[in-house]
Amino acid sequence: xxxxxxxxxxxxxxxxxxxxxxxxxxxxxxxxxxxxxxxxxxxxxxxxxxxxxxxxxxxxxxxxxxxxxxxxxxxxxxxxxxxxxxxxxxxxxxxxxxxxxxxxxxxxxxxxxxxxxxxxxxxxxxxxxxxxxxxxxxxxxxxxxxxxxxxxxxxxxxxxxxxxxxxxxxxxxxxxxxxxxxxxxxxxxxxxxxxxxxxxxxxxxxxxxxxxxxxxxxxxxxxxxxxxxxxxxxxxxxxxxxxxxxxxxxxxxxxxxxxxxxxxxxxxxxxxxxxxxxxxxxxxxxxxxxxxxxxxxxxxxxxxxxxxxxxxxxxxxxxxxxxxxxxxxxxxxxxxxxxxxxxxxxxxxxxxxxxxxxxxxxxxxxxxxxxxxxxxxxxxxxxxxxxxxxxxxxxxxxxxxxxxxxxxxxxxxxxxxxxxxxxxxxxxxxxxxxxxxxxxxxxxxxxxxxxxxxxxxxxxxxxxxxxxxxxxxxxxxxxxxxxxxxxxxxxxxxxxxxxxxxxxxxxxxxxxxxxxxxxxxxxxxxxxxxxxxxxxxxxxxxxxxxxxxxxxxxxxxxxxxxxxxxxxxxxxxxxxxxxxxxxxxxxxxxxxxxxxxxxxxxxxxxxxxxxxxxxxxxxxxxxxxxxxxxxxxxxxxxxxxxxxxxxxxxxxxxxxxxxxxxxxxxxxxxxxxxxxxxxxxxxxxxxxxxxxxxxxxxxxxxxxxxx
Length: 707
Fold this sequence. Notes:
transmembrane helix, disordered C terminus, elongated, membrane, mainly beta, 5 domains, Immunoglobulin-like, Ig-like_fold, five-stranded mixed sheet, Ig-like_bact
């Protein structure tokens, strides 16, 4: 292989070809599977770097960026981040050599400035290349060239300088999705001669990507790619790779499948000089280029262990040597391949991985032993070390007896305070708690008033517990309690309609022991003692009640018994109907003859408040209207004094009298029989016979409405 200078890719490729598919899920995402949630974002490439400004062309050959240990960790495959890496067998024992330009396979993902087909940037000028980004999960961007400064302006207008590694400037932006829109790559010539840099912006989506994993700071550089096209892993593809060293030297190799038919592709680069390289892999499927890139490190084999440091947050325990809460963190240095992580175990438990920059809370009260050691990228381990960390997160315990919260004590009453304090872990400051009175002391109850007793305990870790009891000392109570009665306003009738509720509230300086009430019913006397300062009773039956009540305070004083008279009417009045009634008239089946004389007879009554009115559509004692044939109603309304109302309706039927025949009467002198009245009897009997089968139409219905 031959050395080749910096190059730029085919000018005929367009941004449209770049964006025809979805690109690239970073190796950082895979490595993050081994990192605790939330920490991998700390190592995202693309933050401003002090190395962003590269020197002039004349100094380019001297560029050699030191390995970035934090970034290197994100380049690990999951299995490489925690355990020793079994890299594929190197392709050859001889060192890799630079590759001639004609041996390289250009990627269609690069593009030139449409306004500058040559891609050349004059000294002091800036080339801006726009890319349309839609639905990106991760965006990769890089520019290769000496004497350049590079940055990317995201779709939301935020500008991020690219990280510089020698002549390679690169950035990776991922995790939470990226803003849609036009991303602009900005490349500035900070040298003294025109330059033609290589550059590219590509991105991955949820359905199309090329995942890239790599070794880290190992003697041989291993690259592994997983192509995903239209949401599926693909085999049978041609995958290519390229490395660019810090001095611009380029190396290239195909990436074969790890075995025939595999959807995973892997390649080794051996014999590379130590340093950090810009690696990228790509494949073309149906005219769409899928690509992934990142910065990786190479370091010669070494066996020197790293130095590891255990730190805590807070930085140190308190003056007594205790933490109230604490978290652990592990860091280290390594002059060779670089510090990777630590292994640690707490109190002889399972071994855990302590990632750089991650804090691990230490839970559980007591004295803990932390055993730990460091590891570098070539899996050299430091010797095990131990540290003792003491934690007490629990406040002391206080048990207080003798004084009850809110208690009321009589003047001169004997009252003693007792308490116990303790702490199960670090112990109490001074060996005991502090209180207003010594344990077992008598409490002064000679003076009436409101008082407070306080006791406090603090342990050696600084946890504090405090108990406060409020109590009262009261003078002898010789006054009767006061009972207030609440009841609805008495209606104008003097009767409560349906029900009434009475509520008692008693008060006294020594407190209320009970409220007593009683009343008579038809079944006997009801008596209640309510041990509270409030009570209530509801009456919902028709009756006159005499409610007697009194209260007793805590000192034994009893209020004067009082009576409350209550009148309750919970039932409606009723109507008694005599005539018309369900009895036959002179006509069969309850019909009435036209003009029949029927005297209306009804009455009203009530169980409680009595009848206020009893009125019918035909008054009691008057004749029932029978002059008009047909069905008629007699309506009676009864109202009691409390206000209940009952309505009763009686329906009856009047039958029409038949028309009389003949040409005259006996008085007409036309030959007829003298009128004796017998013909009327005969006519009446005939009418009766005619109506015998007519059927009764007397119905009675009752409707009751209350209130």
